[in-house]
């Protein structure tokens, strides 16, 4: 059983008890505990069940690499699944629950998968569920979906109660990892004067060095670390950050830091997580090394742990992971665990060392303490279900016969150490295979390359290969100096302090225990705990022809879980290499992708949630509309009222009311969103002649002209009314969504093609609030407000004037998008709401009502006016829409002119704009296609047209529509059919698109 | 995520401030050009593995278009320069040659 | 003239920094040849300020000049004087090819003050805001989260932010999130 010892525990404060719950049971730990150490203190060895076979699992590791101890953390709007017990700081009131079991952790129905595991090998799902095909959708998929998924998703009805944020940081040298190497490297870099940012994922500094012991100079490692931190804190050019993990390294020195600001104090003010978006000239990855498990049967039984983790739990948190422990190893480091445990009073039964000559000085020390060392031995099998009961020991050579059984309750295993190369590799850093350590380490000659073509990442300390304290410190010192130098600073060259070292014997690569284990053992030897991948699965993949490591990964799911193979990678690769008869470096590694460790979606989104999820642009009249029933419609980033719905009305009712009222009395539209671009200069006319298909240079001052804009490939991209303000100045209206786009389009041509033309453009869209005053009473209401002469004579159709309307400085455009008498009045935005209110008040006697975009659409459709985005879709040219009149024949050139001469553009079979009138007055479905004679190559009916706009017109009391139809204008009064997605066939007559006031009299009164 | 130095305002702009504008130094063919010329102008683009000349705009910044010479494979940036030129300036060509001797891109080398 | 109202009518918020929408500010977008003497005289005559260097702002109170791009300045004048100043500017520019236009109502202006002002700004803009890298008089056009914005630092260390009027609500809410209590970064 696991217990808390009376002594030890450098990270816990025994004076501060903390209570928490696990699966509803209240337990106690200390401040400084992780959830994992606190659970172990309560003898909760089993912390979850595995994903596929639902095998009982306990904690294996002590840090971010933990594959098993995943829990659901928190409750309600703060619940989050798949949190590692090993990286979760304990706090008062923490609630946690284990995963992947039903009905309970102790008794789980799904564990039957484990008994059936011989029938569930790698690729089982791919092979099994192919036939019969209909079964997939109706039988297999629902069942698999139910049993799949890691952890339980939060309640979809609840919103995350916390906030998140981003932070942009800039550093000369970013050091990732606040272990002894990271601290040393940071100090070495900072002494040059470089601006250094140091990130540490844990809440404490120093990493694992204090657990391993040793001395630096005359000091203990603990004291030396304290000294380094104090020195760094005193330097103005250094920023230190704990609880902040270096999550990823990207192009051009971009890196992400994931700061868990308040995970340990939930509900505290401020953001829960902060994503650091860092630009660094140089990055030092001092990310340490991770111990590898050994592959022996039953290596996943709760109680089997990494030797280093068992040592961490003892030294850091005062936990004895077992009472009677067996240590299995292929290297000397695991002896430190045996010695540490023994000295703490734990019964260490023996060290099973796979090497024939066993260990060096550390082994001698262990023997001197009375620990039995068995050289050349292996674990054949661990016995026990929910916790370790016995271990069968055999020779490492051979198949695992002649076993000796030893009763015990915990096993510490060490298969050697692998540098954490993830951040080095994220952006393309290459690795080399180190035969003596049996691991991949960064190849300093092939680093990730920055914008200057030089390397920008340097690995330091055990992340770079060295494992022994003295060499780690010297490596880190060198790395820090090199990073400062590469960042443009002059480093202060120094030697790292001397360290007392213990000579170690060489490790021996052991990929399977025993070496030639029989199949029944290999089927219980886990490589990837989280995804339940065993030695036998990888061997099967190799037999079935999966030679590429990337393919094997996907076939077996090796290394695909949330731990991304931190423990399993090297063991898996070596197993594959052995099965293929190749060397490990030939097989290579899978790709390391960021993030190093899962980060929250909240942190990625940052502040962008709730009301700032995305920008919502607002006109000066937005607030009034919101208070007066606006049913909002997104148009680009703007929100525009679709209709103003009164109480008791449906949206449809409101639209019908607005449509009729505007035609019969008076309507007001907030048209402020229309783009307004000032184009000024001696060459402005010439420039606009290029931008528009029409001739704009001939427009008289005081007049307006409707213009079309095409892209260079001839397709219609925007439209709007252009007003000539003076000889040199034009004001171009764009569509609502088009202001920024068309502004950019103009700037692009001016800056990159016609840079010698004297033209300046400014976007003044938001300087004005613009109101369309529409309907037979439009002039009356404006005249009532008083001011400028708005008579037909003083302001004829398609002209504009500046003046006063009431108390307002106004520019009045006599333009109409509805076919009614209409003025668009622009006033300064700061007075927009006041002007709107003045119109409403003055308009009472004239039957004024505001109207929304749907009424705007219906009114323009009744007049056959096109709408960019409805009648156009990026493939439509003006000629398709019968707009030839707006294409200048006199101009030698304009954007799109040459393209319109291409054969496809002049093809008489292009679909052309027509009006469509249903036989029964119903409304055509939007986007419906018309079908004609014959079928295409796919056996589908040939299409001869489609609906581009369709509405119910309250004025005409029937459906109206426009569409693009093959030979449409030549087929007036013919009937064509539109099959709807509802199964009905809609029959429509081809008619003139102008349905209302065909002579255009009403707008010109 | 790239950073490019805007040659107009001198800012080392984060990619999130920039907008890519495709291939650099296109020669416009308008009315009067033959079908092949116009087709190539409109549609044909370089897609090199290595040295590339591109147009970028410091969109969320000073708003100016500029040119960038960079390597599409390593993302190394050889330099950025004015948008108001028909060919890369000599110092940009020299910078590329230093790093990628023997390079060529369209008619430039 | 009716009573003009700024986008958020002087909204404010107190968090780790204070956020104020400071109301209407006279603003003229001026495009032209910044190297011409006529231009230099015209704008300094108008504001009493020299044309600023690249990425700098020469502003005192509500009057001054900001460098927007190689051919653009933002001219700040008191709001009530903007039309008169615009006319004065156009006269001073004479026949020189330039574009000067009143954009006062097209914008919203915020001030961020307090010890953590740098923290707040660095949460929203991909700009190095550390002391030394960004100092009083420095000016930057960039993005604020998802919208375009510009800001400069005043002599007292506060920031003045300009965004589009339509985005005022979004930017104010952004600033409130970035300045929420308990969110000090303390990285500067």
Strand content of chain A: 25-35%
CATH topology of chain B: Folate-binding fold
For the termini of chain A, the CA-CA separation is 96 Å
The largest sheet of chain A is: 7 strands, mixed
Task: Describe how the helices and strands are arranged.
The complex is a heterotrimer of chains A (1005), B (109) and C (188).
Chain A: E1 3-4, E2 13-22, E3 25-31, H1 35-41, E4 46-49, E5 56-58, E6 70-73, E7 80-84, E8 95-98, H2 112-115, H3 124-128, H4 133-147, E9 164-176, H5 180-190, E10 196-199, H6 209-212, E11 215-216, E12 219-220, H7 221-233, E13 238-241, E14 244-250, E15 254-260, E16 273-285, E17 289-291, E18 304-306, H8 307-317, E19 319-320, E20 324-329, H9 333-343, E21 347-353, H10 361-368, E22 372-375, E23 377-383, E24 390-395, E25 404-407, E26 410-414, E27 417-419, H11 422-426, E28 431-434, E29 439-442, E30 457-459, H12 469-486, H13 519-522, E31 526-528, E32 533-534, H14 535-543, H15 549-556, H16 569-580, H17 584-587, H18 601-605, H19 622-627, E33 630-635, E34 638-644, H20 651-664, E35 666-670, E36 675-680, H21 684-691, E37 704-710, E38 716-726, E39 729-734, H22 739-752, E40 760-763, E41 768-774, H23 778-785, E42 800-805, E43 808-813, E44 822-828, H24 832-843, E45 848-850, H25 853-862, H26 903-906, E46 911-918, E47 929-935, E48 941-953, E49 958-966, E50 975-979, E51 985-991
Parallel strand pairs in A: 2-8, 9-10, 9-16, 10-13, 16-30, 18-26, 20-21, 20-26, 21-22, 35-45
Antiparallel strand pairs in A: 1-19, 2-3, 4-5, 6-7, 6-8, 11-12, 14-15, 15-16, 17-27, 23-24, 24-25, 28-29, 31-32, 33-34, 35-41, 36-39, 36-40, 37-38, 38-39, 41-44, 42-43, 43-44, 46-49, 46-51, 47-48, 48-49, 50-51
Chain B: E1 3-5, E2 12-14, E3 19-23, H1 35-43, E4 51-57, E5 65-71, E6 77-82, H2 90-99
Antiparallel strand pairs in B: 1-2, 3-4, 4-5, 5-6
Chain C: E1 12-14, E2 18-21, E3 26-31, H1 37-47, E4 57-60, E5 63-69, E6 72-77, H2 82-93, E7 99-102, E8 107-113, H3 117-122, E9 139-144, E10 147-153, E11 159-164, H4 168-178
Antiparallel strand pairs in C: 1-2, 2-8, 3-6, 3-7, 4-5, 5-6, 8-11, 9-10, 10-11
Helix pairs in contact in C: 1-2
């Amino acid at each position: 059983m696991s217990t808390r010892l009376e002594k030890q525990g450098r990270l816990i404060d025994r004076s501060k008890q903390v209570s928490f719950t696990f699966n509803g049971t209240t337990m106690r730990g200390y401040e400084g505990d992780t959830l994992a150490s606190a659970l172990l203190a309560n003898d909760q060895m089993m912390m979850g069940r595995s994903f596929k076979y639902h095998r009982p699992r306990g904690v294996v590791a002590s840090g971010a690499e933990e594959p098993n101890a995943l829990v659901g953390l928190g409750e309600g709007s703060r619940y989050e699944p798949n949190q590692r017990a090993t990286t979760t700081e304990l706090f008062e009131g923490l609630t946690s629950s284990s995963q992947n079991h039903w009905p309970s952790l102790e008794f789980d129905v799904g564990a039957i998968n484990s008994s059936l595991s011989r029938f569930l090998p790698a690729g089982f799902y791919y092979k099994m569920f192919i036939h019969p095909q209909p079964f997939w959708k109706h039988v297999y998929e629902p069942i698999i979906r139910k049993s799949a998924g890691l952890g339980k998703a939060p309640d979809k009805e609840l919103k995350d109660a916390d906030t998140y944020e981003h932070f942009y940081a800039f550093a000369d040298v970013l050091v990732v990892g606040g272990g002894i190497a990271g601290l040393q490297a940071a100090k070495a870099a900072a002494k040059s004067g470089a601006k250094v940012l140091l990130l540490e994922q844990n809440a404490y500094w120093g990493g694992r060095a204090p657990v391993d012991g040793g001395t630096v100079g005359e000091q203990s490692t603990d004291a030396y670390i304290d000294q380094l931190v104090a020195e760094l804190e005193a330097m103005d050019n250094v920023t230190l950050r704990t609880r902040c993990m270096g999550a990823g390294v990207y192009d051009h020195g971009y890196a992400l830091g994931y700061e868990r600001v308040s995970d340990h104090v939930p509900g505290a003010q401020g953001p829960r997580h902060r994503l650091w978006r860092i630009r660094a000239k140089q990055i030092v990855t001092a990310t340490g090394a991770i111990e590898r498990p050994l592959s022996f049967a039953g290596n996943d039984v709760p109680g089997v742990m990494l030797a280093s983790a068992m040592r961490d739990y003892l030294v850091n948190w005062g936990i004895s992971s077992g009472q009677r422990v067996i240590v299995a190893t292929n290297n000397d480091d695991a002896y430190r665990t045996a010695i540490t445990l023994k000295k703490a009073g734990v019964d260490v039964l023996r060290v099973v060392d796979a090497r024939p000559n066993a260990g060096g000085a550390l082994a001698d020390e262990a023997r001197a303490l009375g620990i039995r060392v068995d050289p050349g031995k292996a674990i054949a099998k661990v016995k026990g279900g929910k916790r370790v009961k016995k271990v069968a020991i055999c020779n490492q050579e051979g198949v695992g016969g002649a076993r000796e059984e030893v009763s015990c309750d915990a096993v510490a295993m060490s298969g050697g150490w692998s540098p954490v190369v993830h951040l080095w590799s994220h952006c393309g850093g290459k690795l080399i295979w180190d035969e003596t350590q049996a691991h991949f380490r960064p190849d300093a000659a092939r680093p990730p390359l920055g914008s200057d073509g030089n390397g920008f990442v340097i690995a330091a300390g055990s992340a770079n290969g060295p494992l022994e304290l003295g060499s780690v410190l010297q490596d880190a010192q060198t790395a820090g100096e090199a990073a400062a130098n590469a960042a443009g600073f002059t480093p202060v060259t120094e030697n790292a302090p001397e360290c007392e070292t213990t000579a170690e014997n060489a490790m021996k690569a052991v990929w399977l225990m025993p070496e030639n284990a029989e199949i029944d053992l290999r089927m219980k030897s886990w490589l990837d705990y989280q995804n339940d991948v065993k030695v036998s699965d990888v061997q099967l993949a190799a037999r079935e022809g999966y030679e590429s490591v990337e393919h094997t990964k996907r076939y077996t799911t090796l290394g695909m879980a949330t731990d991304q193979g931190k423990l399993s990678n090297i063991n898996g690769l070596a197993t594959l290499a052995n099965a293929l008869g190749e060397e490990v470096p030939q097989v290579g590694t899978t790709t390391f992708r960021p993030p190093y460790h899962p980060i929250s979606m909240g942190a990625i989104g940052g502040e962008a949630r709730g009301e700032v999820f995305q920008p919502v642009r607002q006109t000066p009249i937005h607030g009034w509309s919101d208070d007066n029933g606006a049913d909002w419609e997104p148009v680009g980033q703007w929100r525009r009222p679709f209709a103003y719905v009164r109480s008791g009305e449906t949206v449809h009712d409101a639209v019908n009311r607005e449509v009729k009222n505007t035609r019969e009395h008076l309507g007001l539209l907030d048209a402020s969103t229309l783009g307004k671009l000032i184009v000024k200069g001696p060459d402005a006319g010439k420039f606009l002649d290029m931008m528009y298909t029409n001739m704009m240079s001939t427009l008289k001052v005081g007049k307006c002209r409707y213009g079309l804009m095409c892209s260079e490939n001839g397709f219609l991209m925007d439209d709007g009314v252009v007003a000539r303000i003076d000889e040199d100045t034009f004001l171009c209206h764009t569509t609502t969504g088009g202001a920024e786009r068309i502004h950019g389009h103009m700037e692009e041509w001016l800056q990159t093609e016609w840079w010698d033309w004297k033209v300046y453009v400014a976007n003044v869209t938001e300087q004005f609030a613009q109101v369309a005053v529409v309907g037979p009473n439009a002039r009356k209401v404006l005249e009532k407000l008083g001011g400028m002469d708005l008579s037909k004579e003083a302001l004829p159709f398609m002209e504009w004037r500046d003046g006063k309307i009431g108390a307002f400085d106004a520019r009045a455009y006599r333009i109409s998008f509805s076919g009614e008498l209409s003025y668009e009045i622009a006033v300064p935005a700061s007075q927009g709401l006041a002007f709107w209110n003045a119109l409403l008040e003055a308009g009472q006697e004239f039957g004024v009502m505001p109207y929304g975009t749907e009424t705007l659409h219906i009114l323009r459709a009744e007049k056959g006016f096109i709408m960019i985005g409805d009648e156009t879709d990026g493939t439509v040219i003006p000629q398709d829409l019968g707009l030839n009149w707006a294409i200048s024949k006199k101009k030698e050139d304009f954007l799109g002119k040459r393209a319109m001469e291409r054969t496809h553009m002049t093809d008489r079979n292009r679909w052309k704009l027509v009006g469509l009138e249903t036989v029964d007055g119903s409304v055509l479905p939007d986007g419906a296609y018309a079908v004609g004679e014959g079928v295409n190559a796919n056996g589908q009916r040939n299409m001869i047209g489609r609906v581009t706009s369709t509405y119910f017109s309250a004025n005409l009391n029937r459906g109206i529509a426009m569409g693009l139809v093959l030979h449409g204008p030549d087929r007036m009064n013919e009937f064509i059919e539109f099959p709807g997605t509802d199964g009905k066939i809609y029959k429509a007559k081809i008619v003139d698109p102008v349905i209302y006031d065909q002579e255009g009299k009403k707008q010109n009164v | 995520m790239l950073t490019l130095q805007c040659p107009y305002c001198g800012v080392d702009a984060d990619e999130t401030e920039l907008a890519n504008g495709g291939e650099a130094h296109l020669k416009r063919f308008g009315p009067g050009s033959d079908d092949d010329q116009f087709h190539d102008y409109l549609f044909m683009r370089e897609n090199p593995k290595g040295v590339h000349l591109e147009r970028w705009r410091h969109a969320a910044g000073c708003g100016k278009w500029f040119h960038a010479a960079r390597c599409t494979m390593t993302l190394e940036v050889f330099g950025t320069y004015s948008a108001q030129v028909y060919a890369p300036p000599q110092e940009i060509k020299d910078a590329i040659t230093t790093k990628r001797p023997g390079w060529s891109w369209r008619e430039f080398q | 003239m009716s009573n003009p109202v700024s986008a958020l009518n002087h909204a404010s918020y107190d968090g780790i920094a204070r956020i104020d929408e400071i109301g209407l500010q006279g603003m003229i977008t001026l495009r032209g040849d910044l190297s011409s003497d006529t231009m230099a005289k015209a704008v300094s005559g108008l504001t009493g300020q020299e044309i600023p260097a690249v990425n700098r702002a020469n502003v005192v109170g509500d009057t001054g000049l900001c460098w927007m791009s190689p051919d653009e300045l933002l001219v700040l004048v008191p709001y009530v004087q903007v039309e008169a100043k615009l006319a004065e500017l156009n006269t001073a520019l004479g026949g020189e090819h330039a574009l000067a236009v009143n954009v006062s109502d097209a914008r919203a202006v915020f001030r961020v003050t307090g010890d953590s002002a740098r923290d707040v700004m660095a949460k929203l803009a991909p700009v190095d805001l550390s002391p030394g890298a960004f100092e009083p008089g420095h000016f930057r056009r960039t993005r604020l989260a998802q919208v375009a914005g510009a800001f400069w630092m005043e002599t007292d260390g506060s920031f003045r932010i300009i965004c589009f009027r339509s985005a005022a609500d979004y930017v104010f809410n952004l600033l409130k999130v970035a300045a929420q209590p308990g969110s000090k970064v303390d990285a500067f």
